[in-house]
Every structure is written in C-alpha cells, then in structure tokens.
Specification:
Number of domains of chain B: 1
CATH class of the largest domain in chain A: Alpha Beta
Strand content of chain B: 25-35%
Strand content of chain A: 25-35%
CATH superfamily of chain B: RNA polymerase II/Efflux pump adaptor protein, barrel-sandwich hybrid domain
CATH architecture of chain B: Beta Barrel
CATH topology of the largest domain in chain A: Gyrase A, domain 2
Structural class of chain B: alpha+beta
CATH topology of chain B: OB fold (Dihydrolipoamide Acetyltransferase, E2P)
Number of domains of chain A: 3
Distance between the termini of chain B: 11 Å
Helix content of chain B: 10-25%
Strand order of the largest sheet of chain B: 1-2-3-9-8-5
Oligomer: heterodimer
Number of helices of chain A: 8
CATH superfamily of the largest domain in chain A: Probable tRNA modification gtpase trme, domain 1
Strand order of the largest sheet of chain A: 11-12-13-10-4-14
Distance between the termini of chain A: 42 Å
CATH class of chain B: Mainly Beta
Shape of chain A: globular
Largest sheet of chain A: 6 strands, mixed
Number of helices of chain B: 3
Radius of gyration of chain A: 21 Å
CATH architecture of the largest domain in chain A: 2-Layer Sandwich
Amino acid sequence: MSELQHTPLRDFHFAHGGRLVDFAGWEMPIQYRSILDEHRAVRRAAGLFDVSHMGEVDVRGPEANKFLQHLITNDVNKLFPGRVLYSAMCYENGGVVDDLLVYQRGADDYFLCINAGNIAKDLAWLRGQAHGFSVTITDRSADYALLAVQGPRAAAIVQSLTSAPLGLVKYYHFIEGIVAGVHCLISRTGYTGEDGFELYHAPGAAVELAEALLAAGAPHGLELVGLGARDSLRLEAGYPLYGHELSADISPLTAGLGRMVKLAKPCGFVGAEALRAEDAAGGTKRVVFFKTGDRRIVRADTPVIGSAGATVGRVLSGTLSPMLNEAIGTALVPASAVTEPLVVDIRGEKINLFLVKPPFFPLKNNL
Amino acid sequence: MSQIPADLRYTKSHEWVRLAADGTAIVGITDFAQATLGDITYVQLPKPGATLAARQVFGVVESVKAASDLYMPVAGTVAEINPALASAPETVNKSPYESGWMMKLHLTAPSELTALFDSAAYEKLLT
C-alpha cells in the first residue's frame, strides 16, 4: 500500500473540520460539516473546493495543435488563446482514456487539466500518441494547486480580490491575473452547473489564497465544500464522472456526449473509426439519467431490471438530490430498453426509474 | 467528542435504549453513529405490532455514503415509530437522543436491559 498523496491544503482542511478520506490515492476532504448543507450552499451562495489533486499537462511545440486534433474527440480549432474546451480522448475502440479540459494559451501552447486518478495513465497515453509529432509534453501536476469557487456569488467573491476584469471572462474562457496577491490562471469553468471560477496557482500560495477566499466569501455565504457535495452537484448538473459515466468501456457517444465528438474533423482522431461505426449503427447501449420520487439512494452497481423481470443493466452513479429531495442517478442500459419500464430492487422493494434529460435542476451558468 | 448521556443503555452496534416512565423502551442510534454515518437521508423502520428478537435487524439507516442495518438492543414488540423521520431523516443527525428517536418497544424481558452497556462501558468502546 503506497502512501496517500496530499495537497498543500491538508492542514487547512483539518483546521476547518474536514473529514479526510482516500480518493483515487489522494487524501482529500469528503466533507467538512454536512454533504447536503455544503451542496445547498453552492446552489444558494458559493462554495470553495480544493481540487489540487487534478493533473495538469503542458503541450507545446509547432505541432501542438495537430497533435491535439489527433488526440481528442472535440475540435481544437474552436480554441483561441483564452478559450477552454471540454473533450474526451479515446482509445482506438472508442472507449475513453479520460475526459479533460484543454486550454489554449498561445499559438503553440496548450494546457490540459486531467483527472487525478488518471494522471500516470494519461501521461503514458499522451507520450505514446505523440510519436511523430513535433510536440513537448510536460507533467505540471506538482506545479499547480487548484481552488474552485462555485455558485451564484462566486464572481462577486473572486472579483473582490482581483483587479482582473472578470466581467469580460465568459464561461469556458480564462485569463491570467493576481487574486489576493497570488498569480493565477483564472478559468471560468467548474463541475457544479453553477457560475464559478477555477484558480490554478503555485502550491506554495494555496493556503494564503484559500484563507483569502474564505474570508472574502464568508459575508456572501461561501462555505468550504468537500468531494461528497462535488459529486452530488455534478450529478444533479448531469455531468459525467470518469469511471462511472465514461470509461474504457463506455464511449462518449454511449454516454450521450456526442456534442464533443467531431466525427467530421478532416484530420481524424484516435477512435474516430469505432465511434463512426457506433454512430452509424445507433449504439447498442446508452447512459440514461433517472429519478425515482423516493428518498432511498440507488447506489452504483445496483442491477437495473427490465419489463421481463431480468437484469438489463446497472447503475453507474446514484445519490440523493439535495435540491429535489429524491434519489437521482445514471444507469447503463441497452438502447432498446430506454422505452420500457425500468426498476431497481432496494431491500426487496421495486423502485421505478423515471428517465429524465439532465440537468435535474435548472442551472444558472451561461454555457 | 461524542455525546453519551449517562441515563441510557447502549449496544456495541451503536443503538441506545431509554426506559420510559410507562415501562416502554425508546430506541435510537448514538451521536457517534450519526456522526460516523454523516448526512442521514432515509430511515427504514418496522411496522408497529412487529415482534423482534434481540440482535435481529429492525431497520436500515441510509446516509449519502452508505446503508447500514439497525439491530434490536433487546427483544420487544414495536409500539410506535417516530413519524417525523419519514420526511425529515436528518432529525437523527440533529438530535440523536431526543427528537431523532426511532421507535418505542414493549419489552419482552425487561431484565435484558441490564446486559447492555452503561454509558461508561460504551464510552470505553469508543476509545
């Protein structure tokens, strides 16, 4: 058993009552006070999240654009300096290596944000795919801490600590600036469905920045938020989590993320052929979102039962929506099953799954 | 620090029992249990009239993180369940020993209570 990695904010989390757990090999706060209360604080006012475990990668060189077009499913040419793109990168068979954010800083200068649990795998994949491209790939994960401020009050809170013109930074755009004396890449992105910012900065400044955001946010109702509420917020918003709605076995098309799969890219990309075939055939399986009208949580890996009484699929993610006060989740089912009544068995009782189109809750971001 | 009222009896599975003046026993889960579970989202309780043996599963408490069985501290027949918990299960987090009580029992053998932990023994279990 290897030692858990930790962010520069571990002592900060302890001091603020954080309950730390092993998350993908990282010692991270699952909650501070209450997952449900932290969730509601983000929807009502704002939340501060330590997501420094996320990985960062520089992709630079004269063929950086060409390499990324080959690597990811979305169209890199939608980027310009200051713009952020969400995408998947796939295996040849269409399964997903990871989902990621791509930032363009300059003509030959890109920056990737990848999932913490996938850093080693992604770097090996990136380096393997880079053969033949004039591009330099650098793991920068240890050089960045990452704090997210999310919620309707996020912009006012961050703006109170910076002279950077945040009003000019639209959703999925970024600028560089000084926040509370700390140099940051200020990205108007997030994983909650709310407006907000993700602040990439030097690990040595993380405590100072976190304290400043907490102090500036308190009058606005900002609270510290752990990974427990991060998961319920993203599920309520309808966002996928790698290893659940996206994986080596679940393609972005199966996951319903066709909008980030640009099959018509003239250069092609890794996995394009398999995804084109899946698209043409309509796909045999589908990720669906459900709610139940019941408070009992339908947990991941619960079998999904079809109209004939047999297991037809399984639950991928499940939680209690703190805003709807009912169980919500995702499941992987045959495409042919989406029109039939689906149920799960919870302790001997059949619970109906009502399929819905996410988000479960009206979102206020301006995507 | 967990609250451990001196006037209750406890189990190693973190239920508590309070003997009421009318001879019934009130059952709930301890402050330690609610804090460990985190946000409680659902409490499944037996129907009044059900008779259950000591250590038999009487219900389930669900939190955001997990679902856990609840065990009968002593044998008894369910006289009443807390009606507030169906719509407000978080009451167990807020007040595990008072408004977050789970059920009232008619005891099969009141002498069984003496076999349960007192507050000092339960406190020792937690340390």
